[in-house]
């Protein structure tokens, strides 16, 4: 294979790596890849931190191995190459009545990345995590292809396993029926924290998510918009071409008054009595994908996303975190609150039954300090941090949050005894050593 | 139903274009040397909406099955279209060390595709319809230090396409010459090249060119300007430049 020395970054652009990258384009290159020795793989690098970085070695870019291989309309099982993007699959199959059972908030995520982080979607409370709908994974492990099925320890170590058990080449995923490529979205205002949780708790919709105004304080703390979606069929205008952020924005682009104004408008756009609108699939599931490279809005220094989940009973702790965030004036416009079900597919999967909060912060010393405090509060609340977002946590914190870590380590040690698949995140959190 | 035969269908540049054709409901004949890879692409195109996809062996250096290929393709009762992506680009230094390689480079980019098109075009003319889309290269616009053998093969193909347009246009068959600059595929991996574009952007340009019946298109567009300037540089100066 041709290996090219490049500098590449996580989605938050606060963390980056320099190293050799190769990008296989055809299936027959896999043999050449295997001959070059083991290396970790990455997808579209939509993980915010350092999960898809390797500054001490090589990285395999899987995004060109992206073909749809077979589909069985009787079972809804689709086989794809690992570099295929979830949004592309959704757009292709929704008009025919099928959707991936679980989709994260960006359609650019690849199947390999969805497995590697065991991602969750707006329907986690019903469908669980991505890995729970995977029926087979083909791994490149120690130079050989290996099929892994649900139920085995290796499967549980691979789902949510951060690429440490081998390169995912292909996978079979179970799709779920849908009515079409539209979503009927009911939007309701939640005027404060209590109302927000009540709406989320009561929601019986197929898809539910809360957008939260993390700048609102006092009696308005926790206000936001709860969106509930159901798939539907019909004709609406196709999404226009995505726009693009051409340059790094100056650092004041997301300054406090701008964010406050944006959030105010976003909240008041929905009438007080709520409303139901019809959206194209992508506009509901992947709203940010409409603006390519939106991560440049944070300027050259980039940003971090903090995401935690806390048990249902720890909601007051989450409220306290929000209070801290709102008081800091550091919040960005993009914050999400969701109620999660218990579903998780692997030893290191993020989800637990409870509430999850995700929010972006510019890469500044005050913000990093705030994230550190939020991480400590998450630990105390018995919650968990998400490897797809994390860039600042410590190994000690993570150990308490992921009780199955030793089981994962045992499988990973068998799969990759020489540590050839270690990435920057695994190194930073010292995940592979007891 | 429209049918397209794609020569060199496994080329990295072709993939998004194939997918667009599939999504629009065209029948596809994917031709190339790597059977397994063609089958994978065929599965992908079927799942994306192509009503029929066939895989065929096409080797630019072996003309022996062209008649059979054309017989199968023209057995379709509808509008026939062709796109040529085949080509190869060994490093100039590798060619310098082994001039015998020139023949293969010429075959992949020019003599193979031209032989095939020459045999096919009467069938298209007989139906007074269809598009031939041939991929040349900006490298064919002027012989440069770094890749003049590849450039010569692409120049030959571009000149051929220009003549073919002149001929077939009279009978209702439209010929498009595409001149891509560097495209981000396995072929260019590891090279530092200016104004690199993506296969997705190329596919968008190709679809537009087909719809608007353009004659010659540069992709990315900036290359039209760049190559106009490069062609204008007087030879006494140009021969001392290494661009
Ligand atoms: C706007 C936005 C919204 C998001 N919303 C959500 C959400 O709602 N829910 C959620 O769960 N996540 C969400 N995410 C996170 C995202 O879904 C995950 O980070 C996902 O892993 C990204 O996929 P990727 O292809 O970019 O993987 P990468 O980030 O490139 O890689 C992720 C991990 O998987 C491994 N990996 C990737 N491909 C392979 C492979 N082929 N073989 C082996 N290992 C591999 C990598 O080594 C790495 O550890 C969001 C991200 C963004 C940018």
Question: Would you kindly provide a written description of the structure presented here, covering whatever features stand out?
Answer:
The complex is a heterodimer of chains A (434) and B (243). Helices cover 26% and strands 26% of the residues of chain A. Chain A is α+β, with helices and mostly antiparallel strands and 434 residues long. Chain A folds into 3 domains: 4-61, no CATH class; 68-179, 2-Layer Sandwich (Uridine Diphospho-n-acetylenolpyruvylglucosamine Reductase, domain 3); 182-394, FAD-linked oxidases, C-terminal domain (Vanillyl-alcohol Oxidase, Chain A, domain 3, 3-Layer(aba) Sandwich). In chain A, helix 9 (315-328) runs antiparallel to helix 10. Chain A is globular and about 60 Å long. Chain B has helices at residues 15-23, 35-47, 66-74, 92-97, 101-127, 148-168, 199-212, 222-232, 235-238; strands spanning 3-7, 27-32, 53-57, 80-84, 131-135, 174-180, 216-219. With 243 residues, chain B is α/β, with parallel strands linked by helices. Chain B has one domain: 3-Layer(aba) Sandwich (Rossmann fold), CATH 3.40.50.720. In chain B, strands 3-2-1-4-5-6-7 form a 7-stranded parallel β-sheet, with helices on both faces. Helix content of chain B is 47%, strand content 15%. In chain B, helix 7 (199-212) links the parallel strand 6 (174-180) and strand 7. The A-B interface holds A 2-4, 22-29, 64, 67-71, 92 and B 10, 12, 34, 36-37, 40-41, 43-44, 47-49, 185-186, 189-190. Flavin-adenine dinucleotide is lined by residues 11, 40-47, 51-52, 62, 82, 104-106, 109-110, 112-114, 116-117, 119-121, 162-163, 167-168, 288, 388, 423 of chain A.
């Amino acid at each position: 294979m041709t290996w090219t020395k490049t500098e590449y970054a996580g989605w938050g652009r606060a963390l980056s790596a320099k190293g050799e990258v190769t990008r296989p384009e055809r299936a027959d290159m896999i043999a050449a890849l295997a001959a070059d020795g083991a290396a970790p793989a990455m997808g579209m690098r939509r993980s915010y931190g350092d999960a898809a970085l390797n500054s001490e070695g090589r990285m395999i870019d899987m995004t060109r191995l992206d073909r749809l291989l077979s589909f069985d309309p009787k079972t809804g099982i689709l086989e794809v190459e690992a570099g295929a993007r979830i949004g592309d699959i959704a757009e292709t199959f929704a008009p025919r009545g099928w959707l991936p059972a679980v989709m994260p908030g960006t359609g650019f995520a690849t199947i390999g990345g969805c497995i590697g982080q065991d991602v969750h979607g707006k329907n986690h409370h019903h469908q669980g995590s991505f890995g729970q709908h995977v029926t087979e994974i083909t791994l490149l492990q120690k130079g050989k292809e290996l099929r892994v099925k649900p139920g085995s320890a290796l499967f549980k170590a691979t789902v949510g396993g951060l690429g440490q058990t081998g390169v995912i080449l292909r996978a079979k995923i179970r799709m779920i029926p849908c009515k079409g490529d539209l979503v009927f979205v009911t939007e309701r205002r939640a005027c404060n924290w209590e109302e927000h949780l009540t709406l989320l708790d009561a929601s019986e919709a197929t898809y539910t998510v809360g957008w939260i105004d993390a700048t609102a304080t006092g009696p308005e703390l926790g206000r936001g918009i709860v969106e509930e979606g159901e798939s539907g069929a019909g004709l609406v205008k196709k999404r226009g071409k995505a726009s693009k952020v051409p340059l790094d924005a100056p650092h004041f682009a997301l300054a406090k008054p701008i964010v406050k104004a944006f959030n105010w408008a976003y909240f008041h756009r929905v009438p007080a009595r709520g409303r139901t609108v019809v959206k194209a699939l992508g506009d509901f599931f992947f709203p940010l994908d409409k603006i390519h490279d939106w991560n440049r809005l944070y300027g050259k220094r980039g940003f971090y996303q903090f995401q935690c989940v806390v048990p249902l009973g720890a909601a007051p702790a989450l409220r306290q975190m929000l209070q801290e965030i709102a008081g800091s004036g550091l919040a960005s416009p993009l914050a999400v609150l969701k109620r999660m079900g218990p579903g998780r597919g692997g030893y290191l999967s993020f989800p637990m039954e409870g509430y999850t909060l995700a929010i972006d912060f510019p890469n500044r010393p005050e913000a990093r300090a705030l994230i550190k405090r939020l991480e400590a509060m998450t630990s105390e609340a018995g919650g968990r941090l998400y490897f797809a977002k994390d860039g600042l946590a410590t190994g000690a914190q993570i150990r308490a949050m992921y009780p199955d870590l030793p089981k994962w380590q045992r499988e990973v040690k068998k799969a990759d005894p020489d540590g050839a698949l270690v990435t920057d995140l695994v190194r930073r959190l010292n995940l592979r050593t007891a | 139903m429209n049918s397209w035969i794609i020569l060199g269908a496994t080329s990295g540049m072709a993939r998004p274009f194939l997918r667009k054709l599939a999504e629009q409901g065209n029948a596809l004949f994917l031709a190339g040397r790597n059977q397994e890879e063609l089958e994978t692409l065929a599965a992908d195109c079927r799942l994306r909406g192509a009503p029929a996809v066939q895989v065929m062996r096409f080797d630019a250096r072996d003309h022996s099955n062209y008649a059979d290929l054309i017989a199968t393709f023209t057995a379709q009762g509808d509008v026939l279209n062709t796109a040529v992506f085949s080509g190869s680009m060994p490093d100039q230094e590798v060619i310098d060390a082994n001039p015998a390689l020139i023949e293969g480079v010429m075959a992949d980019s020019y003599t193979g595709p031209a032989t095939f098109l020459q045999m096919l075009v009467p069938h298209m003319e007989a139906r007074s319809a269809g598009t031939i889309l041939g991929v040349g290269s900006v490298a064919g616009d002027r012989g440069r230090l770094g890749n003049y053998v590849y450039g010569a093969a692409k120049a030959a193909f571009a000149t051929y396409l220009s003549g073919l347009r002149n001929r077939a246009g009279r009978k209702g068959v439209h010929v498009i010459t595409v001149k891509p600059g560097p495209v981000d595929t396995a072929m260019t991996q590891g090279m530092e090249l200016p104004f690199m574009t993506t296969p997705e952007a190329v596919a968008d340009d190709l679809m537009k060119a087909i719809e608007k019946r353009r004659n010659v298109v540069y992709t990315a567009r900036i290359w039209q300007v760049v190559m106009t300037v490069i062609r204008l540089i007087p030879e006494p100066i140009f021969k001392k430049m290494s661009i």
